[in-house]
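Side project, low priority. Logging it here so it doesn't get lost.
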Amino acid sequence: MTQEIAVLSAKPDMAVESPPVRKVFVKTYGCQMNVYDSDRMTDALAKDGYVSTDVMEDADLVLLNTCHIREKAAEKVYSALGRLRDLKKKKAGEGREMMIGVAGCVAQAEGDEILRRAPAVDLVIGPQTYHRLPEALKRVKRGERVLETDYAIEDKFEHLPAPDKAKTRARGVTAFLTVQEGCDKFCTFCVVPYTRGSEVSRPVAQIVAEAQKLVDAGVREITLLGQNVNAWHGVGADGEQWGLGELLNRLTRIEGLARLRYTTSHPRDMDDSLINAHRDLPQLMPYLHLPIQSGSNRILKAMNRRHTTAEYIALIARIKAARPDLALSGDFIVGFPGETDEDFEDTLRLVETVGYAQAFSFKYSTRPGTPGAELGDQVPEDVKAKRLERLQALLLEQQNAFAQACIGKTIDLLLEKPGRMPGQLIGRSPWLQSVNVDAKSSQIGDIVSVRITGAGPNSLFAEVVS
């Protein structure tokens, strides 16, 4: 019987063919959500035989997962496509095929323009449709140039495969998990409502199931992602709408999940339940990214932020009353249309009042299709540059002061990956700082007690407390 089975299984018409192995190279631009999307795209392609490669020249498929927040980010994509065109031509001369795809927010905003400007591109796919990527590539194989940038009616997360355990383990002990997408705020400087669509929240059961699979694969820390993550309102097990505070409480019940974070938040969506979560949940790290963009009420109104500096400062006071050791991060835009010297001075005063452990700051750049692009009284580039230099100097001073204040503290450190030096590991402090410490590679994934001994420009140094 065994021999007969062996003979039958060897017949060509009975053989089970494995998909051919193909290599995919993904270049990710922009935010953490794009990192998450890139991982899920490679997961979706795995069933068709694609394996990830870090060498672009070896790839059968190159995907650029793009960001459209700033003008230079979009132009970088077109520059990269020019280089890929030459690589594709070179490989074709060697008898090797290479497909080029553009995904993400630039794809959503400029799909037709990409196909026009970059004839070497085979596929353009938006962030709401990347679950259709395998089928789109089949269409490319049939000779089509594919544009998939509609807002999908179906839930893309239901159509994606579960996170692969082996791949998740290889990616490390921390992971991103998207819980909310899109934005209904319509800040006048921002393209997100036009590239990611309106606010959509994933249901609790779907989020918990994905989080559990991540933890089962060895993840110790999860960062919940959303364009306005604290606007998340998903359907819970009781059929009622939950807020982010309730979701965080539910996730802390997953055994083995040691740490939680979330980003990016909007001040208008910071409710009591979420503030109380910072007070009550030791797994929720004492770090909050809460952008304000400007310290001028006049500019905030022009930006359609719909809150004032006084409301922002009062909100921070409430959060820090709940969690006194909380460190704050923020975003700032200088040179928004109509910004005067006094408006900018208001921003500096706000920064001095609040105090930031970290912050991101940029010169305003017009994004086509946004209301800000239609405003007059644009600020000259040289003025923007000078203001940005002053703001960044102040923010760097505060960041350094926060780092110096950590010296001598004993903290719990999640060990994440090898450091530059032999016998060194890098971990993240509760306040999201990189920390270098001498430890064994077998300790990756452990949370150890360390004492901060020094502070550099971009990281801290520590020793394990025995």
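Brief comment: The two ends are 63 Å apart (CA to CA).
Revisit when time allows.
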